[in-house]
């Protein structure tokens, strides 16, 4: 395959699983990839790359990945076709990363659950 990409980043947006007019499923999301630079406050800078997955890959990504997961994906760069809308205005296609394979490298850290101890109540028979 001549058109190949591999990237690692954080899932910036949870997937939206959709169904195309032909009945096939697809998912749209974005991956935040570090640029290697920082802003004036010292925070890392990221590029947000649009990704799309199709059919079973879309269903699996939607099922197993959530916003914030650190993932590695590979696939090919693709582009939506240019078209003329119903008002006669030329619309240009967007480039996106079409996912072929994915791996979750680490899950987003869940917030710790606060455990509340139940109140112990003595039965009436032990009090009498």
Question: Cα-atom Rg, whole angstroms?
Answer: 23 Å
Series of secondary-structure elements, N-terminal to C-terminal: EEEHEEEEH
What is the mean pLDDT?
82
Give the CA-CA distance, first to last residue. 82 Å
Count the E strands: 7
Number of helices: 2
Low-confidence stretches: none
The secondary-structure class comes to mainly beta
Q: How does the overall form come out from the CA principal axes?
A: globular
Helix content estimate: 10-25%
| Beta-strand share of residues | over 45%
In short:
The chain has 128 residues and is mostly beta strands. The chain has helices spanning 55-64, 124-127, and strands at 5-19, 25-38, 44-54, 70-79, 83-84, 90-91, 95-106.
Description:
The protein has 128 residues and is mainly β. The protein contains two helices and seven strands; from the N terminus they run E-E-E-H-E-E-E-E-H. It has helices spanning 55-64, 124-127; strands at residues 5-19, 25-38, 44-54, 70-79, 83-84, 90-91, 95-106. The protein has a five-stranded mixed β-barrel with strand order 1-2-3-7-4. A two-stranded antiparallel ribbon has the order 5-6. Strand 5 (83-84) and strand 6 (90-91) form a beta hairpin. The radius of gyration is 23 Å and the shape is globular. The model has no long low-confidence stretch (mean pLDDT 82).
């Amino acid at each position: 395959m001549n058109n190949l990409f591999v990237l690692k980043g954080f899932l910036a947006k949870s997937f939206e699983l959709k169904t195309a007019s032909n009945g096939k499923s697809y998912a749209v999301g974005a991956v935040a990839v570090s640029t290697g630079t920082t802003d004036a406050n010292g925070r890392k800078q990221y590029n947000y790359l649009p990704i799309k997955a199709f059919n079973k890959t879309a269903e699996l990504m939607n099922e197993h990945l959530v916003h914030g997961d650190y993932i590695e994906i590979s696939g090919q760069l693709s582009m939506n076709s240019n078209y003329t809308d119903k008002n006669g205005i030329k619309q240009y296609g967007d480039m996106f990363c079409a996912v072929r394979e994915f791996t979750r490298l680490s899950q987003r850290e869940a917030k710790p659950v606060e455990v509340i101890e139940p109140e112990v109540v003595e039965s009436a028979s032990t009090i009498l």
